[in-house]
Design brief:
Layout: H1 14-28, H2 38-51, H3 56-66, H4 75-87, E1 91-96, E2 99-104, H5 106-111, H6 132-150, H7 153-175
Antiparallel strand pairs: 1-2
């Protein structure tokens, strides 16, 4: 089978680099089983319900779809949050075809006065340092891995130069006052 970790003519262990990037991605990827903070689930639910009434499964599906598959909250986080929002008087449920369809109350509409997409898009303006920077790193790792898998030697060389420059610029940010 051969040594998959053999250095390329450039002296770089590409397979090892891709494994490291996949590990970085999985560290921050919400699908790895980590939980989003309750405030994010809450904000996403309020934003979606500000658009139209939905049942729980629709909420889970919409968050998954709008996040590009990066975040699919579990029923175990969505349904208790729905109940909490109902207990707070921000949403109410109506039984339709055997399902609870949730909608905002007047109080909930006032509380949901946010950009509906802000709950699942990144990076966030103002820089939520817990999510924006790791997500940007994951996206960079994905793009870099794609170049490594499908790019020509010249494209890989160019990508390495871009990454070297990015690394220098990022360190320069820390060097400033």
């Amino acid at each position: 089978m051969g040594n998959s970790h053999a250095p390329t003519p450039f002296g770089v262990d590409l397979e090892g680099m891709w494994q490291a990037m996949d590990q970085l991605r999985s560290t921050f990827d919400r699908r790895d089983g980590s939980r989003a903070p309750r405030g994010e689930v809450r904000a996403a639910i309020l934003a979606l319900l500000s658009e139209r009434p939905m049942h729980g499964y629709q909420i889970i599906h919409e968050i998954d779809e709008r996040s590009g598959g990066d975040w699919k909250p579990s029923a175990g986080s969505v349904y208790p949050t729905l109940q909490l929002l109902a207990d707070e008087g921000l949403i109410s449920a109506e039984e339709t075809d055997g399902r609870k369809v949730w909608s905002l109350t007047d109080t909930g509409r006032a509380a949901a006065g946010v950009d509906p997409a802000a709950s699942w898009t990144a990076p966030r303006s103002g820089g939520d340092r817990r999510t924006a920077l790791p997500k940007a790193g994951v996206e960079l790792a994905r793009a870099t891995a794609q170049v490594g898998r499908t790019g020509t030697s010249a494209q890989v060389d160019e990508a390495v130069a871009v990454l070297d420059e990015a690394r220098r610029r990022i360190y320069s940010i820390l060097a400033r006052d």
